[in-house]
Amino acid sequence: MQPLAERLRPQSIQQLIGQDHLSGSNSILYNAIESQQLHSMILWGPPGTGKTTIANIIAHTLQIPYFSLSAISAGVKEVREIIAKAAEMQNCILFIDEIHRFNKSQQDALLNAVEKGIIILIGATTENPSFEVNAALLSRCQVYILKPLQKDSLQQLVNDALVNDEVLKQKNIVVEEYEALITISGGDARKLLNLLEIVINSSAADKIIITDEMVMRIAQQKIALYDKSGEQHYDIISAFIKSMRGSDANAAVYWLARMIEGGEDVKFIARRMVIFASEDIGNANPTALVLANTTFDAVSKIGYPESRIILSQCAVYLATCEKSNATYMAIDSAIALVRQTGDLPVPLHLRNAPTKLMKNLDYGKNYQYDHTQQNHFAGQELLPDAIKGTTFYNPGNTAREKEIRNFLKIRWGDKYGY
Questions:
Q1: Which of 32, 81, 194, 412 is most buried, taking the most CB atoms under 10 A from its CB?
Q2: How much is the average pLDDT of 289-305?
Q3: What is the domain extent for residue 249?
Q4: Per the confidence metrics, is the pTM higher than 0.90?
């Protein structure tokens, strides 16, 4: 028997739940499907938001030849074979799941066919296409952004399943509480329906009453069952980051291995380590960012299987570094104040004065050039008057950051409370 998520897959754009900006009667996508004037597109969004479903809806509605590939297993050879078949037909759709996993040569193989209209490309990606799809290919496609499903949409999915599914409507099922179903699903419709089916199949009672406690208990026992097809993408990267943050090199390597075995994109893993190096280590060990960035460059050139060694080296290094989120907290604090105070004027002495008029208006007047002062430090006010003396950056207690704190205290005395 097909899984519940597959049995309930929408057959028309009107049945699509949770993407009103795409399924609404005035949307570009809706009008393109209804008028059968289709164009190549990239569908960008988290897992379970309807990317594959939209591709199926288009093929079902237009009733034209439809080819499907997964970028995990397909290469240039498979792409060219389909393009050769499509050249003998008209208006063929080629759906490529996880198109961000295609390298440059694989994406280049699509260019000519898309440009000449041999295929209508529908690419699905969880990653920002600006970074992962070649500019030439991206320029020939319309990008549609799919959003995580909100609580109302997820609840509607559950209720529709109980009413419309041929299997579930024969059972006596009452959903008393939705919170656990919705929370665990994380905005992923497929994950939600798979979990719902597991919960229902776990009960032999004549009347099944679904509560949060019941869902949590079953989910803990059978978590792998509804996450077995790569939907652990966000859960496992979260565990990986938290393991490095918690300075547990063993846990970090384990979760890294889980991602590698699951076929996770090496650049996705490496990109998250670059972010981690700045967010969670920062100036406690500035070399962490250098190594993480070098790791990203290296795995981008090498790929699997050798990249596993480089990723492991970097993960262990990051896990065993001293930790500090001081710079991360500093920029968030500064952004919050900017949003609160708006566009405060730049003090006149800090303004650039490239023209005579600006000089006459005192732009740059009284600015003290630090390199002409003792210790290359003038001690002038560098914030707008309204917020002068505000502290954003508070160094942590690591050895390196104690040096930074001491440097700032010597320079600024009590001004910033260092």
A1: 194
A2: 92
A3: 233-319
A4: no
For residue 389, what pLDDT is reported? 87
Of 145, 160, 181, which marks where a domain is finished?
145
pLDDT at 358: 67
Confidence band (pLDDT; 50, 70, 90) for 239? confident
Shared domain check, 33 and 141: yes
> Do 99 and 41 share a domain, yes or no?
yes
Q: Does residue 77 belong to any structural domain of this protein?
A: yes
How high does pLDDT run on average in the chain? Answer: 86
Q: Please tell me whether residues 184 and 298 are part of one structural domain.
A: no
Q: What is the pLDDT of residues 333-380, one digit of tens each?
A: 998 888 888 888 888 877 777 777 767 767 777 788 888 888 888 888
In a domain, 334, yes or no: no
Confidence of residue 98 (pLDDT cuts 50, 70, 90): confident
**Quick check: is 121 in a domain?**
yes
Same domain, 114 and 200: no
SS (H, E, C) the chain: CCCHHHHCCCCCHHHCCCCHHHHCCCCHHHHHHHHCCCCCEEEECCCCCCHHHHHHHHHHHHCCCEEEEECCCCCHHHHHHHHHHHHCCCCEEEEEECHHHCCHHHHHHHHHHHHHCCEEEEEEECCCHHHHCCHHHHCCCEEEECCCCCHHHHHHHHHHHHHHCCCHHHCEEEECCCHHHHHHHCCCHHHHHHHHHHHHHCCCCCEEEECHHHHHHHHHHCHHHHCCCCCCHHHHHHHHHHHHHCCCHHHHHHHHHHHHHCCCCHHHHHHHHHHHHHHHHHHHCCHHHHHHHHHHHHHHHHCCCCHHHHHHHHHHHHHCCCCCCHHHHHHHHHHHHHHHHCCCCCCHHHCCCCCHHHHHCCCCCCCCCHHHCHHHCCCCCCCCHHHCCCCCCCCCCCHHHHHHHHHHHHHHCCCCCC
Same domain for 222 and 263, yes or no, is no
Domain boundary, last residue among 287, 319, 351: 319
**Does the pLDDT at position 70 exceed 60?**
yes
Let me know whether 81 and 105 are in one domain.
yes
Residue 8 forms part of a structural domain: no
Domain count, the chain: 4
